[in-house]
Design goal:
The chain is an all-alpha fold. The longest helix has 23 residues.
Amino acid sequence: MKRFIPTKAHGVFDLVTGPALVAAPDLLRLNGTLGSSLAPRVTGALGTGLSAVTDYETGAVRVVPVKAHLVVDAVSGAALAATPWLTGARRQGIRHWLPHAAIGATEMALALTTRTEPGDGRNRKGWLVAGGAAGAALAAALLVRRRGAVKRLPKAVGKPVGRVREKVAS
């Protein structure tokens, strides 16, 4: 199979996917079951840590070879995709298995199609700042939601309320 994905693109995907996987159980309201919430959190946290030390353009320390990173991605993608079936969480509905399967399949596909040698590594800091900012924004949104600052919209969104309702009724 031809490897055509640049390591820089793979690194950016990792910087976005890792924090998104950590936040996914809360955003998708999967907290009721350990089988559907633990796997994305662990995969996201380990993937973010691994991408920080991988020898590609977005890596901060650059000690783990790209080939080793891709092997870990393939294995973790397969594990993430299989978890809802292994734990029985798939029986609780599509939102308990489809995100796992989609992200797991994407991780495996990227592992098979990403180049094994990094580019020249220039402009590394710009990509790190962009990925870090995206991760920080996602974490902040999750924290605000968890603390109750953001409430669900009422079911009557779009319907007149208060005095406006009285005027419409008359």
